[in-house]
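Moderator note: this is an archived Q&A kept for reference. The question asked for a predicted structure of one protein chain; the sequence and the answer are reproduced below.
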Amino acid sequence: MSKKDKLLLIKYFLLQFVLLYDIIAVTKIGFCILMPVRTMVRAGKSKKDYIFSKVKEDL
């Protein structure tokens, strides 16, 4: 194995590691954004259902 091949291999591994790290970072950020949105949507849905049930009771 020549020196050039070793360097290429190291570069390749580093690139894989960076990509993996990027994916993990993006997923973490995505979760940080998605989780509150999901809870808000859920809260909104339950609120809507609550309002609808109240309206139905009044009718």
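Archived answer notes: The CA atoms of residues 44 and 50 lie 10 Å apart.
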